[in-house]
Every structure is written in C-alpha cells, then in structure tokens.
Design a protein that fits this description.
This protein is mainly alpha-helical. It contains ten helices and no strands. The radius of gyration is 20 Å and the shape is globular.
Length: 282
C-alpha cells in the first residue's frame, strides 16, 4: 500500500485552534459551579450538547481543510470572528444567550456550506464527500435558523435538533464518504492538538492544588493521574494507530469528541474537590 504523505498543519489552522482554546475554557465554566454539592442532570446535558456543538463546528472546518486543502484567508477570518462570537455566548442560561449563540451558529454553518460548495473545487453532484457534507450542513442550518425565528420556548428544540443532525447524520450516510479523500496523518495530528489543548485546560485548573507546603499527597496523586492519562493517549496516538491507513476517520473523530467531554468533566470534578477542601484534608 502506498504511504500517505501527511499534509502540513498550517499556521491558520493553529490560529483557529486558539479560538477553540477560548471556547474550551468557556464550556468548562458551564459546570464549574456545583448546586447542592453536585451538577444538576439538566445542566450536565446542556454542557454535553454545547461540547458536541462546538466540536462538530471545529470538525467540519478541519475536515474541509483535510479533504480539499483549501483555506482562503477570507473564510478563515470569518470563521474566527463568528467562533469568538459563539464562545462569548456559551452559558448555562440558554434563554439569555439563545439568540446570540444560535445566530453565531447560523453564521458559522452558512460559512461552512459556502466553503464546501464553492471553495472545495468539487461539483457537489459528482463528489460524494461534498454532497454528504453540504446536505448535512444545510439541514442543520434550516433547523437552527427555524428555531431562531420561532423563539426560545419552542425554537430551542429545533436548535438542538439541528446540532444533533450535524453531529449524527454523517453516521447515517457513512458509506457516502470516500476513504482515499482523507489525509489520515493530518487528521490524527489535528485531533491530537485538540486533546493537548484539553489536557492543558485540566493542567491549568489543578494548579490551585499546588500551594502551601511543597510535598502534598493529594495534589501529587492528581498530577500523576493526569500525566498517566496523557501518557496513555500518547501511546495510543503514536504507537497503536496506523497513521498511514486508508480510513474515513469516523471512529477517530467521534472517540475524540467523547474524550473531550470526559476530560472536561474530570476537570470540573477536580475543581469541586478543591472547593470542598479535600486537598487540605490530605
């Protein structure tokens, strides 16, 4: 089998990830404030949905670059602006940020549709990948825009439906995607950067444990746990995954979404422990 030449990760892609760093910090804050010693189930579901919404937006942009190699300056600038706008309106009080958050989603999804249809250089009726992505994004756009026009009380359900369409519909049309169009080494690297960002968020949050005496058992255990988790990921990423396989990358992408959810949940849990004084008792 011919070895796949890894596509270089561009500086614009890395700059785009900086906005994602900001979004990650905002999302984590959604569950940083326990109620009666825990997270209300509804709040946690909101948190999971927002992670999925932001991750699928990032993934559609990453897949566009990965498969078609186009990253026009005007497209990237537009996405950076709208992604910042979206991140600024991440909040557990959905009724307060309903219009601003979903307006940003509409702008971002519309921009992604424009990129896939006009920037890929492929005819949507002849290219299976472009057609599948474009149809999925158009359905998501219709659902979110309709919800936005209806208003919060009923429109929120359409907006959630739109997010789920964008996240789950590619699985329903799995066979439409062509493995040879995927630059798998590039995809592995892009997703690895997201996990590094998420681990970085966790590392920043555990720094509150390191105060007072130099030797503290509980902070040391937490740090060892984090390092062990990161080491396990490196082994998986560097040694167990064949970077030059022909694959659609679906298992890789969806598993990373759930890894991000798990890591952010763990980060919030560690914050709860710090606030409850567990570290001081150890």
């Amino acid at each position: 089998m011919q070895k796949i030449i890894a596509k270089r990760v561009s500086m614009l892609e890395l700059f785009y990830d900086l906005i994602f760093v900001y979004a990650i910090s905002k999302i984590t804050a959604m569950i940083h404030h326990p109620v009666a010693g825990g997270i209300p189930l509804f709040n946690y579901i909101e948190f999971v949905f927002v992670v999925i919404m932001v991750m699928q937006i990032w993934l559609y942009q990453a897949l566009y670059i990965n498969r078609f190699g186009k990253s026009r300056i005007i497209d990237t600038i537009g996405l950076l602006i709208t992604m910042t706008y979206l991140a600024n309106n991440i909040n557990t009080e959905w009724s307060v940020t309903f219009r601003t958050f979903n307006s940003a989603v509409v702008l971002i999804v519309a921009g992604l549709i424009w990129q896939y249809l006009c920037g890929s250089g492929k005819h949507p009726m002849r290219d299976h990948d472009v057609r599948a992505f474009a149809v999925t994004l158009i359905l998501e756009l219709i659902a979110v825009l309709s919800g936005l026009l209806i208003g919060y009380h009923y429109g929120i359900f359409l907006c959630v439906l739109g997010g789920l369409i964008g996240f789950l519909m590619p699985l329903a049309v799995y066979q439409q995607f062509v493995p040879k169009n995927v630059n798998f080494p590039h995809l592995v690297e892009r997703l690895g950067l997201i996990i590094i960002i998420t681990f970085g968020e966790s590392l920043v949050n555990i720094t509150r444990y390191f105060n007072g005496s130099i030797i503290q058992l509980f902070p040391a255990l937490i740090f060892v746990l984090l390092v062990t988790m990161f080491g396990a990921y490196i082994i998986q990423d560097e040694l167990l995954i064949n970077h030059h396989q022909r694959s659609r990358g679906f298992v890789l992408m969806y598993s990373h979404v759930f890894m991000v959810i798990s890591l952010l949940s763990m980060t919030a849990g560690l914050d709860y422990l710090a606030e409850s004084g567990v570290s001081r008792r150890c």
